[in-house]
Amino acid sequence: MFNSPQTPRRIPRVMNVPGTVSEVDGFKTNAGDFDALSSECCGKKIIVANFLPLQAQKDIKSGRWSFGFDEDSLLLQMKDGIASDTDVVYVGSLKVDVDPSEQDEVSGRLLKEFNCVPTFLPPDLQKYFYHGFCKQYLWSLFHYMLPMFPDYGNRFDRFLWQAYLSANKIFADKIMELLRQQPELQGKVVLVQILNPARSNGKDVQEARREIYQSTQRINDVFGCPGYEPVVLIDGRVPFYEKTAYYACAECCIVNAVRDGMNLVPYKYIVCRQGTSKMDEALQIAAGSPRMSMLVVSEFIGCSPSLSGAIRVNPWNVDAVADALNMAITMPDVEKQLRHEKHYRYVSSHDVAYWARSFMQDLERACKEHYRKNCWGFGFGMSFRILSLSPSFRHLSVGDIISAHGRTCRRAIYLDYDGTVVPHSSIPKSPSPEVILVLNILCRDPKNTVFIVSGRGQNSLSDWFAQCENIGIAAEHGCFIRWSRTSEWETIPVAADFGWKRIAEPVMKLYTEATDGSYIETKESSLVWHHQDAYPDFGSRQAKELLDHLESVLANEPVVVKRGRQIVEVKPQGVTKGLVTEKILSTMTSNGKPPDFVLCIGDDRSDEDMFESISNAAYISSLPVPPEIFACTVGQKPSKARYYLDDTIDVLKLLKSLAAASSSTTSTSHTKTEVSFESCA
After folding, report:
1. Residue 564 buriedness (CB in 10 A; 0-12 / 13-18 / 19+)
2. How many alpha carbons fall within 13 Å on the CB side of residue 287?
3. Residue 288: left if φ>0, alpha if ψ -120 to 50, beta else—which one?
4. Which of 75, 110, 286, 484 is the most exposed place for a label (fewest CB within 10 A)?
5. Mapping DSSP to helix (H, G, I), strand (E, B) and coil, where does residue 207 land?
6. Which residues are listed as membrane-spanning (predicted)?
């Protein structure tokens, strides 16, 4: 027994044999006239059984059928347990054979007089389905009957199984017709399907056209009647004026393409439904009467996002499309009017001229800087890319920076670590003796304030730069600052709760176990997942997945998850290299030494914060004299920096030149150091 829901859904049809189930092994069914079978589904009970609770007899002389309820039938007695105001419908077979030519008449009569829907199984199908599969297999199975002797057992007969499938499909189709073409709409609703000429005439087009014609014929045969066809198919080019007439008359328009570009049909429909005085006169619509329209559109067409009042559907979901059409047709007039007004306001204000203006504005905005930039091609094959760089983005000349060095006396120098003073490819991560020597020479100049600003931990950086007495270190992106080797570490105030590490670390460990060559670096304020030693493509994919995973599980924590060069890092919010550079510059200014020379070199995304910070117009305007600023990225790539150096070798060459310039301005005792430096070089 089936309880029909208020909003019925179609039952999926599942089969385990090729082809249409109802036609397996030659079993054919007679559709009959199912327009008489529909009944209201609300508050309806459908009782399905093999046989209807009816007695049937045909008069041999007159050829007329006589029917009556079988008072002994259990199905009929079941009705006594159902509320008297419930509409009970029986679905099943008659115990007699009815000629196919009489089935339409018998179907209508049984539904009208007895609320019974016959399935009309062919005699052979009834035999194999009921006496074959049901009695030989299901009855013994459901009654826990095992064969007493091996010879009495029945081998599985696929032929009987196919008969069982076919019979069940016929029953299911009858039930679905009752659950679904809604008799109150029958004779009132017509779908006009316009087939615009295809741009090609291939096999797929012919097959689609054939299927459309077959579906139209089937629907009209089942649900049509003299003088009424539910589907009107127009195959061919339709003149504009004729389409306008269809749009103006249609209460609902459906554009249900599985893929489309900027389809203008919904817009045209809305305008036609708004009408004009001539159209109102032709349609006999009173002037000033409210206008209504309804749209059902595929979510895959270009205009779908712009029609907020339309019912959007997935065209592959047939049930959802059917429900949307029913909703559009039965929607109250007031809501139809409100949706139409919303759409018409949009369409009337966003015409082709508006689109052209918007497109040109977007094009001009996109190209505003285009002609002022230089384009560079990099890579080969699938890795080829074009970079658009500003003409002011240029290689940092040693001559320019030495000249600026000579004109200034309060210099701030910021250096990233990995990828800037030490190559990413370097197996030993500690700085080379040459780097230590150059940095020591720079730090001995009292006019220089040199800082290593890195994402690495304070312990590692302290050990690596233990020989540099006067160098400043900003560890873990500036969370910890030390102005010299002898000074204490300062901590930038961040959230004291590091409970998020208990969430992030297990996730990182999962990806470390799955990614050979990766490892976790645990810092005091952050966690970093490195994958530079993993297989490049796999490591990158794992990094992206880890980034998404961490962002999901840490969504409510006071942290940020960032992906850098071959790393994924989780750190507290508000901790950036840009913040620490501002703090250092502010401290120098408050100590009466506002910098007149600022050099910042880095290669990573995190270094972009430094470039932006030192170029901050508000900060520069607060200084007595604007400093000479050199923001420099390592490698030619889009950056907030104005200058670039090619690689770490280029960086070291520049630092050597600055060290030489600094040593020449210090005391004579440093001349020996310069000689030592030259010999080391």
Report:
1. middle
2. 4
3. left
4. 286
5. helix
6. none
Report the amino acid identity of residue 467: Q
Mean of pLDDT values over 601-609: 88
| Tokens standing for residue 435 | 């780097």
Q: Which of 180-194, 268-282, 317-331 has the lowest mean pLDDT?
A: 180-194
Q: What are the CA-CA distances from residue 489 to residues 461, 539, 577 (Å)?
A: 12, 35, 16
Handedness of CA 529, 534, 537, 542 (dihedral sign): negative
Q: What values do phi and psi take at 530, rounded to 5?
A: -100, 140
User: Which token pair is 311?
Assistant: 């019912």
Distance of alpha carbon 668 from its chain centroid, rounded? 68
Strand order in the sheet with 116-118: 2-3, 44-51, 87-93, 116-118
Q: What tokens does 214 get?
A: 């077959």
Strands ordered across the beta sheet of 295-298: 253-255, 295-298, 311-313
DSSP string, 293-308: --EEEETTSTTGGG-T
Longest dimension (CA), the chain: 137
Q: Tokens 């301005």 — which residue?
A: 665
Q: Judge whether 279 and 308 are in contact, CB under 8 Å.
A: no
pLDDT in tens, 527-581: 999 998 899 889 999 999 999 999 999 988 888 898 888 899 998 887 888 888 8
DSSP β-bridge partners for residue 67: 56
- Segment 623-639, tens digit of pLDDT: 677 888 999 999 877 78
Those residues with Cβ within 8 angstroms of residue 39's Cβ, 6 or more apart along the chain or in another chain: 87, 89, 111, 115, 178, 183
The amino acid occupying position 320 is A
Phi, psi (degrees; rounded to nearest 5) at 171: -60, -45
Contacts of 366 (CB under 8 A, 6+ apart): none
**Cα–Cα separations (whole angstroms), residue 333 to 247, 290, 291, 323, 508:** 18, 9, 9, 18, 57
Q: Which amino acid is at 171?
A: F
Kindly report the pTM of this predicted structure: 0.49
The three-class DSSP label of residue 260 is: coil
